[in-house]
Amino acid sequence: MLNLLLILPIIGAIIISLLPSEKESNLNKNIALIFSSFSFIITCLIALNFDYNNGNFQYQTFLSWLPFLGLNYTVGIDGLSLPLIILNGLIVTLAIYNGETKQNAVNKPKLYYILILLLTTCVNGALIAQNLLLFFLFYEIKLVPIYLLISIWGRDKRNYAAIKYLLYTAFSGIFVLTAFLGLNFLTDGNSFDFDKITTQVLPQAKQILLLLTIVIGFAIKIPIFPLHTWLPDAYTEASTPVSMLLGGIISKLGTYGLIRFGLQLFPDVWGDISPYLAILAVITAIYGSLIAISQTDIKKMIAYASLAHINFVVLATAAGTPLSILGAICQMFAHGLIVTLLFHLVGIIEEKTGTRELSKLHGLMNPYRGLPFVGGLMILAVMASAGIPGMVGFVGEFLSFQGSFSVFPVYTLICLIATGLTAVYFVILLNRVFFGKMENKTGYLPKVQHFEHLPAVILAVIIIFFGLQPSLLTNLSLTTSNSIALLSN
Amino acid sequence: MDFSGQIASLLNASAILPEAIVIVTLLLVLIIDLIFGRKSVPWLPYFAIAGLLASVIALFYGWDNPNPTSFLGSFTSDNLSIVFRGTVALSTAITILLSIAYIENTGTSLAEFVGILLTATLGGMLLCGASELVMIFVSLEMLSISSYLLTGYMKRDPRSNEAALKYLLIGAASSAIFLYGSSLLYGLSGGVTNINTITATLQAGEGLESLGLAIALVFMVAGIAFKISAVPFHQWTPDVYEGSPTPVVAFLSVGSKAAGFAIAIRLFVTAFASVTEEWHFIFTALAILSMVLGNVVALAQTSMKRMLAYSSIGQAGFVMIGLVADTQAGYSSMIFYLFIYLFMNLGAFACIILFALRTGTDKISDYAGLYQKDPLLTLGLSLCLLSLGGIPPLAGFFGKIYIFWAGWQAGLYGLVLVALITSVISIYYYIRVVKMMVVKEPYEMSDIVKKYPPVRWNMPGMRPIQVGLVFLLIATSLLGILSNPVVTIANKSVSSSLVLKASLEARINNISATEIKTVL
């Protein structure tokens, strides 16, 4: 079942590549949509049949692949990867759907959908791989599709943003690979399988060194200050669906790696570096929020907001208590939904008004000439992002902060300030863009069709649903987060 | 009767059956061309390819030869040599496939080209198994002189002439230096030329000889580093690559290099066993210089062939990690990487040849927007370049990770880190080409691509390129994922080699000794 998640998108990509014509944009899209929704349905089936009282890996498959490298095809799923897999299936499907209209129809549709489907496989693969080299393999493959997705279908400065992204991520890969190789040889293992590696046999200094390498590798990916400079460029220059993917799911690979290969592999020395990690997370959160306040481009504002919010996950991971790990997982899920929704709405606004500048947008709530429904969804997304109870964002943030408070009380309080700042910049955004008087010269904006905001509605429904029923979300990962967390705390 | 039987067993001529097949093919090619004349025998290149494939099959049957020594010890047909000889022969077979249209397009004789190429192959194959100083030198020269001829094959093209002259001058100098090094070795050992027995006599008289031995080592390294184009003996590479006919470059970058690495393993492990530390040190320096310089300078290239020249220098640096590691995994990762390199590099050259045939240029900027006009060529070149850059799941990724793994296992942390960082740099320039082809919008298309002829495969000489390209692409995409059998063969060839056995055992003892030290 799990293997289907890897195979299905590839089959889809092959079918699209065999289609005769480049012109048939719709056909390409529909096939991509069919295959991505199939894999989403499979993730849902997996979630239904998942044994929630078992903290170990489930649905495991083991195939010996390249024994001379210790690289085996070992996949499995646990409560940490399950929510992210579901998120991936959902976001990819929505990004492919993305309410395409005549104006934003993609050129070179064939290549575009092939790349997105390949990307799906890579992300799924990285999330279910239980072999370090297998993880690294998927982690590296996704580099090329994302690079091309940004640099072909991006905005004006796309080449610069794409190359920057490529180099940062490639270096992130090097750090991760170095650590994995070191891990394998220092612990004298002949296999890179996750459950066969124990770091406890190592001297403490070596453990810290390896952990540091891993943390730096994933810190580039998450990103954590001061390694974040690729993020605003990549997020803003990418087209709307690619931004949705980048912010929604790709950024989770970093935090996933941090928990899986940092915290879970190095329980002994995690406490030695976690305070520094927490400091950096807090700095990034505050920094991201402050920069977001000063932005004039709404997409960039959301990019920085996403930077700030993903670092709540880092703080919670650093704390490592059972509650905070649960919070981290929920926050990843929530962050994925909310950021995707925000990017999608910004995409609609940009398409309808032709600009993303705060100074040029006024009074879009105008019921006749504006975009009232988009405005309503935007208010909901912003509230979710600011952590208003009743939305999924609240669940993640509350659990994260509650769990971290016992370990890092000061940092947690500072992070609370950062959530306060969220309200500041989003109120600025709402106030400027949606409220106030709409200038007469703007005229009537084109109506938003129902199919265009369908993804936003779906996301909004899910955000509210899990906000009202958080136990459904927490049950997915409760057992796993308890077993991952540092018991010494 | 008894005497002749003894002679026959000493000669053990069956060991060079694959080479004999190549010789017969070579003679037949020349004779057929002589009798029937130019243009009348269109199947001649295919005949040569068949001969080479027959030679590969003969190599296959020579696997696990119980009595590998032949010609009184001057040639060893052990599994190690078989792997390398197979690589050389295969690279030539594919090169001929790619060169048919190219050579015919320039109006020169194809049969002579094939003849010289087969001679070079013969030299390369003999070099892979040579285990006697004179034999090494003769086969090295055979390979080199044919290579000079090949680089100058386009005699009306001034760039080809320039390349040939440069290659000849630098090559002759490096051969002379190599010869001087071997003469020193000959003197120091008291007249022994067999590299397997030379160590014993060298070790017997220690002390005064060490300086002489060091000089001999440096000279011979210089000679071989020239062949594998390691920095700082690389200056010829970019010019020769740029000027020579592209199929020749394809052969030089794969076949000739594989032969160079084969003799490097054999020579240094046996003859210089007493100065292991020293040659490790030299090759570490060469590897670092090659990786850094090759990959950094490649960034600034505007010509595709020059870029691939520098990339091949960098790739040689990666392969040298396996040599420096000097372990079972190190050698087999070298063999594995060279084998994979054969497919991905020839694949890249196949695409360049195809592009040059259709447009007559090899500037990187001329590739802009090719995706719209020729998706197959774009896909092929992208796959091969990404594989060279080490992007999974292509073959190059597995080759690289195996080499890094072996290097790391042998404790070469610094070297592997340099390799990792330079491989990121290499991704940048490989993907630059991919970007040029795929990302550019129709209005950014280069003038050359705008006038790109419609893709037609039924023109003379195109079909072989298509077949070769598709074969290379399949190998590049799948050989990494299904690399288990190849690595098993590489491992077996290393472990069964008597030449490496002693060295590897000494090395294992050495490692375990140091490990004990660190534990204590």
Report on the architecture of this protein.
Chain A has 489 residues and is mainly α. Chain A has 2 domains: 268 residues, no CATH class; 221 residues, no CATH class. In chain A, 70% of the residues lie in helices and 3% in strands. Chain A contains 18 helices and 2 strands. Chain A has a two-stranded antiparallel ribbon with strand order 1-2. The two termini of chain A are 37 Å apart. Chain B is mainly α. Chain B has one domain. In chain B, 77% of the residues lie in helices and 1% in strands. Chain B has a two-stranded antiparallel ribbon with strand order 1-2. The C terminus of chain B is likely disordered. Chains A and B meet through helix 5, helix 6 and helix 7 of A and helix 17, helix 18 and helix 21 of B.
SS field, number of helical segments of chain A: 18
Strand order of the largest sheet of chain B: 1-2
Radius of gyration of chain A: 22 Å
What is the total tally of β strands of chain A? 2
Residue fraction in strands of chain A: under 5%
Morphology of chain A: globular
Q: Per the principal axes of the C-alpha atoms, what is the gross shape of chain B?
A: globular
Gyration radius of chain B, to the nearest Å? Answer: 23 Å
Quaternary state reads heterodimer
Give a quick account of the main beta sheet of chain A: strands, pairing sense, barrel closure: 2 strands, antiparallel
* Helical stretch tally of chain B: 22
The chain-level mean pLDDT of chain B equals 87
The structural class of chain B is mainly alpha
Placed side by side, the strands forming the largest sheet of chain A appear as 1-2
Q: Summarize the largest interface: chains and residue counts.
A: A-B, 32 and 31 residues
Q: Give the N-terminus to C-terminus distance of chain B in angstroms.
A: 63 Å
